[in-house]
Amino acid sequence: MRALVLGGGSGGTIVANSLGAAFETTVVSPTSEHLFQPGLLYAAFKGDERRLVRDERRLLKRGVNFLQDAARRVDLLAKQVDTAGGQRLAYDQLVVATGVGADYSQIPGLPEVAAEVGNYHSTVDSARRLWRTLNAFAGGTIALGQATPICKCPPSPLEGILLTDELLRARGIRDKCRLVFFTPYPRAYPAEPMSRIVEPILKERGIEVFTFFDLDRIDPGTRTLTSIEGDVIECDLPIVVPAFVGADIVYEPAETLDASSFVVTDPRTLRIKGVESAFAIGDGTSLSTSKSGVGAHLEAKVVAKTLNGTPAVFGGRTHCPFDVGGGRATFVAGTYDTPVVPSPPTRLKHLMKMAFARVYWASLRGLLDPVLDVYFRLTDPARATRSGSRELS
Q1: Directed axis angle between helix 293-307 and helix 369-378, to 10°?
Q2: Closest to 42 measured CA to CA, from 323, 318, 346
Q3: What is the pLDDT of residue 391?
């Protein structure tokens, strides 16, 4: 049976490596470089570029084919994919794991600011640029936030402002700087239980928070941020998490995509809307869960089980690492049926997050599946709810 996987990120790689010998599996990706995206945070705020990129072909198990090409048209009815290189690929089962891309054009002025300042949500070069920008900064106002409510890794905007604070303190210039965090949400973190934890940290570190700030435009000359409502933030250094949209792929039928070019996906089965032979996982789906590597990992395992003949459903599990600076971290965990459970930051959780960066590559090949299965079982948010605990330790 022919299985075609579009996308060579974490979700696509995991599902390809998890399919059984009954499948002739091919991964199609426009690049052979596999980027460990969470590492961009530390490249931008700590100058750490270790373990960022590896060759996708070396991450796939023996027998999985790799085609470096970009999907341009997917016909779900005819079960075929046309590529930028002119190939037409037929399949029996399709897994779409094409992720999302940054769309700077949604915010006037953002393309110029991103080109000058950099960011930590797109490329290694852009993260390097932000690292240089922050180290050259001598004082003034830094404003950091997200352009739209859709964000890769929801904790990352707050991680950015907290690590900025840490870097400025290490450089001895924090007293010369004003830090502003802006968000379109009514609180610092979208999920209220986690906001209760992070807001005292922001207050303690002297970071101002602008809520309900829906970014409308940026003046690259004055570096003034203006919201849709007309509120203004004047700053010397704007660091903006860009808007994200789905991959530039045409689908038949056209209603496969929503208004943001995300693939309309069944939240439980992960099948593409109205299609039995096609699934979607990862950031490029319409799912209401966090767009994160952990989510893509768990979704990939559900799809692999289904294709391998074991019925499985996705429960909406999220488990996002959240670095609050100062050598402490927490995790944002929830499911479709269990709201996010507050989890106090600790040094142990920070060590766990750093350890995952070291073992990420092995997890793609399934080498850590037994350990991860136990871990996700023990940290199931429903356990805390059933036990009557109000916090996930």
Answers
A1: 110
A2: 323
A3: 53
- Structural domains present in the chain: 2-99+247-307 (3.50.50.60), 103-243 (3.50.50.60), 318-387 (no CATH)
Whether the link from the prior residue into 381 is cis, omega within 30° of 0, is no
Q: Which two tokens stand for residue 145?
A: 């936030």
What letters, b where the CB count within 10 A reaches 16 and e where it falls short, cover 348-357?
Answer: ebbeebeebb
Range 324-330 average pLDDT: 96
- DSSP secondary structure letter of residue 70: -
Q: What is the pTM (predicted TM-score) of this model? A: 0.94
**Between 378 and 14, residue with greater pLDDT:** 14
Task: Give whole-number Cα distances, 199 to 181, 207, 349, in Å.
Answer: 11, 9, 19
What is the H or E stretch that residue 286 is in?
none
Orientation of helix 192-204 relative to helix 156-170, angle to 10°: 10
Residue 246, pLDDT above cutoff 60? yes
- HEC profile of 160-181: HHHHHHHHHHHCCCHHHEEEEE
Q: How far apart are CA 153 and CA 227, in angstroms?
A: 22
Judge contact between 296 and 15, C-beta under 8 A: no
